[in-house]
Amino acid sequence: MSDDRDEAELLALLEDEYARAILAATSAKPMPVDTLSDRCDASESTIYRRVDRLKEHDLVEEQTEFDPGGHHYSVYASRLRGVNVTFEDGEWSVELDRRPASEEDVADRFTRMWQDL
Amino acid sequence: MIWGYTAAQFGAVLVSLGSTVLGLVVGYQAYRGFRRNDSRSMRYLSVGLVLLTAVSFSLAFFGTLLLRLQVLPAAVGDPLRLVVRLLQFAGLAFITYSLYSRP
Q1: What is the pTM of this model?
Q2: Which residues of B touch A (CB under 8 A)?
Q3: Pfam family of this protein, just one (chain A) (predicted)?
């Protein structure tokens, strides 16, 4: 079953210590890659790789942070609150407890709406 | 009568004030959209909305007040109305332009 493979991949990802460190750090507040690199004691390319995999499973979400200097950068926020692995009736399954996705900023939504007209 | 205004005139001023506040809120969000997304069209939209609401209302309101208090000569009345209409036209022109400007 493809679901099983997804779930196995997910557990493999959670087995990774950097992935866990990223999920833990970004559960407190959204962070950019360079901050995560310091916090998790890993190179930025390691963080980028883990963040990409976490994004594939929708465990972190990317947000754009506005900087008054006009520089935009990405921050990452954890969407995973908990994992429940169940072994029952000869089957195993994984259940995720997700945080709701953050609300899009009204100015960004307005910009998108206006530009799509 | 409230401050020399009929109830209907006073109501009209209050509603115009409300429109100005709402126009400023939308204009402010458009300005934030411009700053956050470097969007030219949001800049023109923001300028257009502020001209259309806050600027033209303030000019009309204070102009009429000064006319009533006879600080300004009555002859200024018609040109003042023209300027207010021109500002509203400019506001709408900005908004129209923002629809066609990319991105």
Answers
A1: 0.60
A2: 29-30, 32-39, 41-42, 45, 98-99, 103
A3: HTH_20
